[in-house]
Amino acid sequence: MAQNENQIDNKEAVAEQASQKVKFEIYGEEMIEKRVKSSGNSGRVYLPPNWVGHHVKIIRID
Asked: What is the CA radius of gyration of the chain?
């Protein structure tokens, strides 16, 4: 019984952490801020063609 209570407490703690904002510090070459558009069962962000083949990081801000 105590183990189940611990699992519930852990799930609640993870849910609380997911709703908190965190700070990221990233060094890079360029930044573009865009809104994600719906695309079937997923989301899509269009980036400039000169970014093709480059490594990018996406951070959700809201």
From this structure: 18
Is 57 inside a domain boundary?
Answer: no
pTM for this one? 0.57
Residues of the chain with pLDDT under 50: none
Look at residue 60 and tell me if it is in a domain: no
DSSP sequence for the chain: -HHHHHHHHHHHHHHHHHHS--------S-----PPEEETTEEE----GGGTTS--------
Please check whether residue 43 lies inside any domain of the structure. yes
Q: Is residue 61 part of a domain?
A: no
